[in-house]
Hints:
Blueprint: E1 6-9, H1 14-18, E2 24-28, E3 41-46, E4 50-56, E5 61-64, H2 65-68, H3 75-78, H4 84-90, E6 102-110, E7 112-113, E8 116-117, E9 119-121
Amino acid sequence: MTKMKRLIFGDGLMSPSLNGSKRFTVRKYREGSHDFAKDEIFVGEFKDGLNILLRALADTKIAEFRRLRANKKDTEKNGYYFDKEYLKDLANFYPDLTWNTMGAVIIFEILRVNDVPVVQFNEHAKTD
């Protein structure tokens, strides 16, 4: 049995992913970690405390960040946006980023059964 791929999301990203307002992520590309095919199901591991099954809505877009640029106003058409501000935010996680760094855009949706998200608690869950 093949182990399902996973993608880690930082604090504060679980709620916007669950409500559908966050449907993409831009990452510094790492081969094997960011290669998703359209309709592939994978685990979103959220630091907020849940693992959520996600489905890739498209093959991962892989290119230099300068080639992945997309205006915020075109998010609906492209499925994502990536601008100077987004690159600046990413640089907090990857200090060596430039516009020539290879990036990956992963567009996803929450996997649902009868409109209920498929989730489980993970090791980041706070239990009192």
